[in-house]
Amino acid sequence: MVEADLYTAARTLPKIELHRHLEGAMRLQTLIDVAQEYGLEMPEYDIETLRPFVQIMPGETRNHQHFLGKFTTLRQFFLSPEVIQRVTREAVADAAADNVRYLELRFTPRALSNIIKCAYDDVVAWVCEAARDAAQAAGIQVGLIISMNRHEGPEVGERVLQAALRYRDYGVAALDLAGNEHQFPAQPFYPVFEQAKAAGLGITIHAGEWAGAASVREALDYLHADRIGHGVRAIEDSSVVELLLRRQIVLEVCPSSNFDSGVIENWALHPLADLHRLGVKTSINTDDPLISNITLSDEIARVMAALGLTLDEVKQHILNAARAAFLPDTARAALVAQFETWLNAE
Prior knowledge:
By secondary structure, the chain is of the alpha/beta class. The chain is built from 17 helices and eight strands.
């Protein structure tokens, strides 16, 4: 299929996204609106002027420093509860507009509260409320994952865990450890995730992205990961691939993000198709749609064009995601059955 046909096929599919960061899913126009309303100084209040500060541009160096640097700018915009709720509603609406029927949206209370100095519980409450209302309005199912960053330390992680537990009946389904696993070890967070596991929260861990396969093994053996965020460097160690196969762990793969952050040098080298054909359970996700300037439909079309995945293989990725959703068993089974019906009709 030509590129336009691939996008049409991807756009038509009912989809699932397991790995999307709220802080990386904002609208450019919203950033302009917030800057004007709150008096943030900018050279000019224009989308194209702002774009290079928050989006990976053609020809820009692609490494984790540049990629993470976009968040330094984005986090300056969380200036009130109203802003936090607006960007949450818009992130859900944008996913629904792309025919995403089930979304797990993750957010970092520390990042959202850093400027306004509010309690983590307040941030979680605002996001839960806005996500619930937006999901009902858009006819989409939304679960929330609360993230902590490795560089912020286990004390912050403990506070994040407690907020997650207090709001688990309001849409919070899981806990996530994010950030640069190459520079910041996970070991200080072992007790936090031990508690999360004992409490029955879902656990997903960023690993096998900027660090090698050993970080995936650590996430599984010591952080009790039910899923792995990214995980693509697992392919560097056959014993880690075997571990993923044995435990039937789903990887939340984000190919454009991997390219934009320097995990891979070019699309042809991305290991998604190889992992899938080895039998590893992979899913396709955007990570940060603003930063990579993509939708999930874009991502699926790129995977089909660059890596040769067929439409049937893409559907298998969607069903992998359904079977790994952070839902109670009965609700997850219903989600899988619904997607099997939808996808068989396509």
